[in-house]
Design goal:
This is Restriction endonuclease. This protein has 123 residues and is α+β, with helices and mostly antiparallel strands. The strands form two sheets. It has a two-stranded antiparallel sheet with strand order 1-2. Strand 1 and strand 2 form a beta hairpin. The longest helix has 10 residues. The protein starts with a helix and ends with a helix.
Length: 123
């Protein structure tokens, strides 16, 4: 029996029953993060801006990538250093409305926005 077969068995105590761990919920999009899904820790204040020992949250990788594709480390530190500020941002809100229609383990490549690409070229 392969790992994939075992994952879906109803009698597996790791995924069913009283010993099954509660699913981790992505605080940004409010969808569960399945055990096999891509995820990462997001420093609420970027490490480069003094957030090494400050709070982190576990996000879907696509949610994490969406943040960094749209904003610089300085802008994240200045005005987007908590989950409620991220959710209130219009660009992230648009992304969240889109990603909430996808399966919990959905992942695709995230492209940097035109504005960020232009800002990088202008440096």
């Amino acid at each position: 029996m392969g790992r994939r077969d075992r994952r879906w068995r109803d009698d597996d105590p790791a995924t069913h029953g009283p010993l099954a761990a509660a699913p981790v919920i992505c605080p940004l999009c409010d969808r569960p993060i399945p055990p096999g899904a891509r995820s990462s820790l997001h420093h609420l204040t970027p490490k480069l801006k003094g957030g090494t020992h400050r709070g982190t949250v576990r996000l879907h990788q696509i949610c994490h990538s969406a943040i960094h594709a749209r904003y610089s480390e300085a802008e994240i530190a200045r005005r987007l250093a908590d989950v409620s500020a991220l959710r209130a941002d219009p660009e992230i809100a648009r992304f969240l409305a889109w990603v909430r229609t996808k399966p919990d383990d959905f992942h695709t490549a995230t492209r940097t926005t035109r504005e960020r690409r232009g800002a990088r070229r202008d440096r």
